[in-house]
């Protein structure tokens, strides 16, 4: 398939706005997105027009076409200013997905501006990804320690056998603790931040205010760290690019927080689910001690970034069965492309423990997950998943897999809860409760507001301190 940069769409080819489109985000999509992708492919071929909250979008379904969109940056632009419907004022004024796209940060830049921002990120992230650097070593220790603390807290609160939600009681707090540490936040980040990121990503009714709240929090953090630099990502971003002001730095942190909390968290849950539901190849790779391969297989089965961020056509181009006009919006779907990939290569790719790195879980092309971020993400996922299997003698789903509730947004597909019946192994970590008389007093209201993390801080000897 060749992009035809100088071609012009024939006048009689259907324009996106003239096509009758079905809404993508339906109850069926929530329950079984694969069935929706199959039907769209059968009706339209590799590219299908769909409605996203009332706005028509080209959804790219087939692996080859998705790769073309991700890799060919001169044709497929990230800057939202290329979007014709936006430039011409044709979008509903309160279209909820726009809030996130209006936040100008690295993801929505092109060409040299984008490459410079990536260099900054790489320089700032690399020390944390490098196990030999002091901060990299410390972060690795911290992730494992937080996971152990959460298992110990679970044992203290719910017993060594019982029921728990591995989302709310393990994965979400773990990623918040990691973000607090990595970003150098002076206070523990709370679950309300994750909810605001969800509202923005999923285009909830209050996506605009939620985006504003999260941005304000990260701008404050940038200002705080500028006054008191430390060994954290915020300070290292500032060092790598001294021209970043607090607002720009806040925007970059905001975007990293999405990947770190929501996307990495979903990758943890999706991997746990694939193992718990008995995906034979995933289990086989886990028992062969190939945790990295387990994560690859889970990403192939269920990529957390199900549909990548929008791209905008720089020029008229034919893609799949349609002419895409300059300024049209496209959404490349990793989840649909994986379905296509599995259909193409099922016998050799999935039936064995051969590597499945062809997955698009990390994206592809110039905007793919930066290598340092990817290694950090993989480290967090494998530690989080590995710790569960180290400490749980038994864990089984309490709902049939097809009844688990999912968040199926325009971008992300992630589990809302992962309920399991569990038994901890005899050597699972325990909380050493200090003498209550020695604990610092925590006002009741604060403990209510902070929930699990506040409980942790109360129970841990010494707690975690401000810096
Ligand atoms: C398992 C966890 C992760 C997964 C599955 C993941 C996946 C992705 C994907 C699919 C993209 C490309 C999106 C697109 O092209 O539309 C991306 C980009 C990005 N990711 Fe990750 N990511 C993960 C972890 C992380 C972590 C931990 C960080 C930072 C701490 C991070 C930072 C970024 C950044 C900054 C970009 C934007 C790159 C650009 O636009 O040039 N990611 N990630």
UniProtKB/TrEMBL annotation:
This is Cytochrome. It comes from Streptomyces griseoruber. It comes from the Bacteria. Belongs to the cytochrome P450 family. Signal peptide: none annotated. InterPro entries: Cyt_P450_B, Cyt_P450_sf. One of its GO terms (molecular function) is heme binding.
